[in-house]
Automatic annotation (TrEMBL):
Low complexity bias (residue ranges): 1-10
Taxonomic source organism: Aromia moschata
Membrane-spanning parts: 78-97
Name of the molecule in the record: Mitochondrial import receptor subunit TOM22 homolog
UniProt KW keywords: Membrane, Mitochondrion, Mitochondrion outer membrane, Protein transport, Receptor, Translocation, Transmembrane, Transmembrane helix, Transport
Chain residue ranges for the region called Disordered: 1-35, 117-137
Keyword DNA-binding: no
Entry's family note: Belongs to the Tom22 family.
Amino acid sequence: MESQDSSQPLDQDDTVKEPPKKQAEIESGDDDEPDETLAERLWGLTEMFPESVRNVTHATVVSTQAGLKFAYSFSRSALWIVFSTSIILFAPVIFEVERAQMEELQKNQQKQLLLGPNSAISGGVPPPIMPPMQQQR
């Protein structure tokens, strides 16, 4: 009996059904129109504003751009002047301070070699001792 059941044609309920094409067409209905870029959409929106608003907006954008370029250029020049001047003015001072520190270090090393390790720390001169204070009656 089983062999007879397997030889029979499949019923309509047993067939594999394909998804309906109409639903897929409805969902992808926007594919017929070409894709717009953001710039194209913004350009299309300009038509809804009057000419005076567009001119004022354009002038504002252009002047803001020019102002930013000027501010950037001015800040670059100002920073160059400030930093180069400070280096020229303060570099000799820094070198002199470093030279003085090195001379002091060399003097301390010479004292340590000649007089012993304790002389360089104290500077060679013992600290002054205060006399005891007298009590007043």
